[in-house]
Amino acid sequence: MIRTTYFGNLEMQTWEFVLLPIYIAIIFFFAYRFGKGKRLQLPGHGYFIWGLAAKIFGAIAFVLIYIYYYKGGDTISYYQSSMAFANLFERSPSDFFHVLFSEASMENRSYFDINTGYPLGYMYFDTKTFTVIRLVSPILILSFKSYLLSTVVLSSLSYYGIWKLYTMLVEYFPKVYKQLALTVIFMPSMIFWGSGLLKDTFTLSATCLLVYSINELMIKRRFTPGKIFGFLIGLYVLISIKPYIFMVLLPCALLWIAYTFIKQTNFWMNYVVVPLVTLLVVGGSLLILNSLGNTLSKFALDQALETVVVTQQDLKSDYYGGNSFDIGDFDASIGGVASKFPIATASGLYRPGVWESRSVVMMLSGLENLFLLILTAWVLVKVRWKLLKLMFTERVVFFMLIFAVLFAFVIGISTSNFGALVRFKIPLLPFFPSALFILLHLHKQQSKRQLTH
What we know:
Helix content is 73%, strand content 0%. The protein contains 23 helices and no strands.
């Protein structure tokens, strides 16, 4: 009998906990087989299984906290809307696939009834949240429609993109593989917010996978069908779910690619070619983003500034339970938004602070941000005026820092609620602290070479 979906509080069932160790065993079985491959024969390969265990732990913690502490939230809405699709699959697989791969419409919504339950209207008719439902529904079917099991499976699958980013960075900087494991794999916010049934789990993994694919295809020139497919998957997920991440990533990636093949060895390269390439990249990025106007919807260039102001004002409203912060008012103009660059960027990188945390979950984020602040200060003290030189010594570090800072600005300027901020900022977390540790490593190497000479 098909279970009817009712939208309200979700209760865990005993059978879900019984099946949990079986699912975990299956996941580790396949992970172990993957881990024996030659692709993992690099410094830090032993962290593969530990990182997967951390993701599964984060998924279970996420489920328990949202069920028994928060008792609701967007994650439950995603689950229950996807449940309607899973029920539809049981009744008619052909109807399921038709609705899954068709546009959201009232006609297609009529395939659901009281027996299948209905996907929530505000999620079904929003293209971004509907994309999440599309991706979650098959996982739900494979997990016996269990919220716990589907979250564990999703977190395990999303680990792939994160691990590929780690292998990329370790290939560049094998001597700091331990620090990179901490910043790419074991950051608390990524383990928790990047392991739940939310948009953020998909977009974090997609961001990491897309950066890895860009490096393989554009920088290293290693063309394989799998890498091209990974590039397309990462691109699709970002544009379909959170296009503003792609809007920040695109110009940064183009600069990374362009600067990689520019050797700054003379006056013309330093003061003519590099500025010219920068202008061309920025102009090209604007043309690409403008051509994607319909796909980006409210994040299209002609609407982006207004979207930032509206979103920022909405998230600091009273109905968010006093968990908001204020960087000050600004108007929807380039000058108005740019005037908030320092405070917005600092907020995106280092807030909430420990003193601003009002829950255990927020306190963990506060401690993480304190770590980032101390690490930043330590790098600035050690590296000082050599910062820009070291950034351009390794262009991948330049990309990581530019992307992290610009993304922090976008998040800080458009988000005035700590609950949203800690989730929205996780795409920058693998890049910012990793770049800082790499800068310390490069500085140490440079100092040793100077001493030997």
